[in-house]
Amino acid sequence: MKEKFYITTAIAYASRKPHIGNTYEIVLSDAIARFKKMLGYDVYFLTGTDEHGQKIQLEAEKQGINPQEYVDNVAGEIKSIWDLMNTTYDQFIRTTNPKHKETVQKIFKKLYEKGDIYKGEYEGHYCTPCESFFTKTQLVDGKCPDCGREVTLTKEEAYFFKMSKYADKLIEYIEAHPDFIVPESRKKEMVNNFLKAGLQDLCVSRTSFTWGVPVTFDEGHVIYVWIDALSNYITALGYDPENPSELFNKNWPCDVHVIGKDILRFHTIYWPIMLMALDLPMPKQIFGHPWLLSGDDKMSKSKGNVMYADDLVRHFGVDGVRFYLLSEMPYAQDGTISYENIIARYNSELANTLGNLVNRTVAMVNKYFGGVVAKSDYEDAFSADLKETALNTVKSVTEKMNEFKVSDALAEIFNLLRRSNKYIDETTPWVLAKSEDDKDKLNACLYNLVETIRICAVLLSAFIPETAQNILNQINVTEASYESILTFGAIESGHKVSEGAPLFARIDEAKKLEEIQTEIEANTVKAPEFKPEIEFSDFEKLDLRVAKVLSCEKVEKADKLLKFTLDVAGTTRTIVSGIAKYYKPEELIGKNVVIIANLKPVKLRGIMSEGMILSSDDNGQIKIVEIDPSVNSGAVIC
After folding, report:
1. C-alpha separations of 296 from 24, 105, 305, 321 in Å
2. Whether the predicted model's global pTM rises above the 0.70 cut
3. What is the per-residue DSSP string for 272-284?
4. Alpha carbon distance 240, 248 (integer Å)
5. CA-closest candidate to residue 25, choices 262, 272, 227
6. At how many degrees (to 10) do helices 465-474 and 357-369 cross?
7. Tell me: the pLDDT tens digits for 146-160?
């Protein structure tokens, strides 16, 4: 029976499209899951979306749609990006799933009946984007300590979870399990800055908004984000307090939660304490990965430094993007991303180191031996070193992947690829091909190269799977098991390779950067060019009034003009406006509009126009400025 391996990502918050930094986590987890499958584990890989909370309710209201419709759209977009990145998750859970909500309600009630949840009143500073409360002393310059945004002083009735009851027990557990939180630096931060500093009870319900899982025994309360969102790791498996499923019994405890370092507190403190209160086993490990930064900054729409996976894939391909994400991010420190760095890595590593090796090796086998490789007893120092390096690489990559040091593992594979390119320079097969006496040496050289390429392709299948399969197709190999790369020489003598084809075409950096810049500019909403500043006294010269449209008609022999008869505080005036292209006259009768009442009259097409009707110009679409019909005509706009 296979050993199980349960891996999860944090569920993505369904407030907006995820940027490439968010996408890194699913690709990282996928590489780990794929490698574990290759090692023979029975892997269960969970991801999904967190879909409740005040922020989502507010976003939906802005768009004039209900929250469920809003999260349906965003969750669909998130899932499509996860699929685009060729990730092999087993389940995509959504917290609006009825079964999840039902189980969350049971969990909340169980904790309440146990006495671990109690009712009280909360007064604190609330950050809507972070869905978090803070005390005044926790604020930084009066703003949210996590995201730096404005906070709102909030007071409301709420339920609280007795975190303090379990704090000492959690400290003991972490100290007794040194690998529970990795990397080590993340563990020290949580223990010293939060647990030992004193743990406050956690607000776990809200009454100021409605978009959440209702508390079954107290109308008006919705279960706050942490119990709802964090429970997904067990509800997805079919956990039920009274009758847990076979899938849950098989896979829990989780082998690793893969999360961003910014939500470490919730996963290493709140979640373990919840599990203690539910009398459930702890997850085996929580891996807090670093951030992917744009330059020196975290990605932010407000900073204009956001990149999206689908845009990058369009320029660099799925495996090009996967390779950069997995190779660039260190185990414990933040990584960076820029178009220049992606192109440089793409050209040097994928096109040159990998692509060139495979292409010229397959070409030489076809040229010198009609595509057939044969085993040989010949071995020199260069061959012996290549074989030893290949087998050591398998061992090293396995060790590093078991420690989740994914970028280090990928670096080991590319070191072997570089060693293979060096082997070609050392053995000079083009020289050996000139002499019949060196045919055995040439045979050995090319066989060793093809076998090393096969080993690299098998290892790369966890990182850049489409490319790995392409390589195996080019060398015509179907044996791609992990067991087959534990020894050197799985390819049989007389094996025939296929025709070669370039894996990655080199990118012209200047041309590609210009293409990307043009695309960015085309999709960027440009800031308006404002007119020169005026003094308030200049504005005071304008007499802006509400006017009711009494009648409206087209001006003869003028396609653009409409003639308005307006009521302005009981007086009648005529204004000619060039908006006939955008309105039918009958559409405007009875509306309250805004006019400049003291504009010098001017004659248009023989009609004296006594003012101007205000309108907006939205990229050529003209709309008159309307005022609530309850406002009296003649009212001053100030």
Report:
1. 17, 42, 11, 20
2. yes
3. HHHHHHTT-PPPS
4. 9
5. 262
6. 10
7. 778 888 888 889 999
Q: How does 457-467 read in b/e, with b if 16+ C-beta sit within 10 Å?
A: bbbbbbbbbeb
Tens of pLDDT, residues 586-635: 999 999 999 999 999 999 888 999 999 999 987 778 899 999 988 999 99
Mean of all residue pLDDT scores within the chain? 93
| Mean pLDDT confidence for 280-295 | 91
Higher pLDDT: 165 or 131? It is 165
Tokens matching residue 292 = 């992917």
Do 237 and 65 contact (CB within 8 A), yes or no? no
Task: Report the C-alpha gap between 33 and 27 in whole angstroms.
Answer: 10
Helix (H) or strand (E) holding 25: helix 20-38
State yes or no: pLDDT of 533 exceeds 90.
no
User: Which of the four pLDDT bands, split at 50, 70 and 90, describes residue 282?
Assistant: very high
Q: For residue 548, what are the β-bridge partners?
A: 567, 592
107, 278 Cβ separation under 8 angstroms: yes
Alpha helices in 177-308 (DSSP H): 184-190, 225-230, 232-235, 246-251, 264-265, 271-277
Contacts of 202 (CB under 8 A, 6+ apart): 160, 161, 163, 226, 270
Closest residue by Cα to residue 212 from 133, 101, 373, 58: 101
pLDDT recorded at residue 239: 98
User: Is residue 268 over pLDDT 60?
Assistant: yes
Question: Using CB atoms within 10 A of its CB, is residue 411 exposed (0-12), middle (13-18) or buried (19+)?
Answer: middle
- Who wins on pLDDT, 304 or 519? 519
Q: What are phi and psi of 230, to 5 degrees?
A: -65, -30
Q: What is the 3-state secondary structure (H, E, C) of 68-131?
A: HHHHHHHHHHHHHHHHHCCCCCCEEEECCCHHHHHHHHHHHHHHHHCCCEEEEEEEEEEECCCC
Tokens of 242: 């009274």
Q: Span 375-396, mean pLDDT?
A: 96
Angle, helix 439-460 to helix 465-474, in steps of 10 degrees: 160
Q: Burial-class residue 401 by CB neighbours within 10 Å (0-12, 13-18, 19+).
A: buried
Q: Closest Cα to residue 350, out of 331, 322, 330, 377?
A: 322
Pairing status of strand 292-294 against strand 335-337: parallel
Q: Structure tokens of 237? A: 């498996």
The token pair at 448 is 């060793």
What CA–CA distance (Å, rounded) separates 579 from 554? 10
Under the banding of pLDDT at 50, 70 and 90, the label for residue 304 is: low
How far is residue 551's CA from residue 593's CA, in Å, rounded to a whole number? 13
**Residue 234: is it exposed, middle or buried by C-beta count within 10 angstroms (0-12/13-18/19+)?**
buried
Q: For residues 236 and 91, is the Cβ–Cβ distance under 8 A?
A: yes
pLDDT of residue 295: 67
3-state secondary structure of 600: coil
Q: Give the pair of three-digit tokens for residue 153.
A: 């002083």
Residues 491, 452 contacting (CB under 8 angstroms): no
Summarize pLDDT for 416-441 with one digit per residue, the tens. 999 999 999 999 999 999 999 999 99
pLDDT digits (tens, 9 = 90+) for 215-231: 999 999 999 888 999 99
